Amino acid sequence: MQSITEQIDRDTFDADDVTTLKQMVECLGDARGLVRLRFAQTLGDIGGTATPLLVDALLHHPNPVVRRAAGKTLALIIDPTTVPSLLHALLNDEDTVVRGSAVGALAKMGEASVPALLGILADPLRSESTKGHAAWALGFIGADAAPFLEDAIKSDSIDVRCATVGAIAHLVQEKGDARAAQLLLATLKDRDPNVRSEAASAIGKMAYLPALPDLITALSDTDGEVRRTAAVSLGKLGDRSAIPHLQSVLNDELEPVRVLAKLAISKIENHEEWE
Predict the structure, then answer these.
(1) Is the pLDDT of residue 243 over 90?
(2) Is the dihedral of CA 233, 203, 216, 254 positive or negative?
């Protein structure tokens, strides 16, 4: 291994030596974690010619440890042509960690992965755990998903719209994108309460103060979960002008809304950070 690393450092390694590359891929199954990491990093540095071997290992190797490491190594190489194989592993591998490695690599592929991730979210036959993976990856991709978000937020799928809220919020936070900010505020009026609640939560997490009037309006939402989330997010924004509006829901019909509104008022008055 040391000689291979030295060859790479000196730019003398023969990246077309398939036999050696195959041996290195097999070493991804080594029982020692640091050894696996070293081989993964080296294969990641090689990239190109190692990619087909890693894809084959991800999809077909009998040892799940190798499949896991292959997915993680593909995340280091970031080759968009591997998206279909990573998607297959996410949807079909029996090993939970392999699926996690695959979705981690999909997230690193950026824009190239977005259509596949949105497809998972829109598929009613996919499990909640798989959709959760896809939603996380879409949020991780953030600004790179921008070309798809305006259409996605209009999707008939509630899961797609919920996940898109998170990606839009990232775009607002990372880029200060004015159009994305408009889309984010518009989701507070989505026809589905799950999406409205997701939007209120995202606004609170990013402490997006321009959304203050919209969150105040959300305190009167017909859905109790949306009202609850709006109260929490107003507490996170920490603006004292929200206090009278939070006081107005202290008599809400739902106890969680009343409790969280009272807590939000306390947090704002005492300038405490919301945990």
Answers:
(1) yes
(2) negative
**Type of residue found at 214:** D
Distance from the Cα of residue 108 to its chain's centroid: 10
How far is 1 from 4, CA to CA, in rounded Å? 5
Please check the confidence at residue 189 and state whether its pLDDT lies above 90. yes
Cα 4 versus chain centre, distance: 35
218: three-class secondary structure by DSSP:
helix
Q: Pick the closest to residue 40 from 90, 126, 117, 104 (CA basis).
A: 104
What local confidence, expressed as pLDDT, does residue 247 receive?
96
φ/ψ of residue 54, rounded to 5? -70, -40
Distance CA 195, CA 121 (A): 14
Structure tokens at 79: 């080759």
Length of the chain: 275
Whether residue 21 contacts residue 48, with contact meaning beta carbons closer than 8 Å, is answered with no
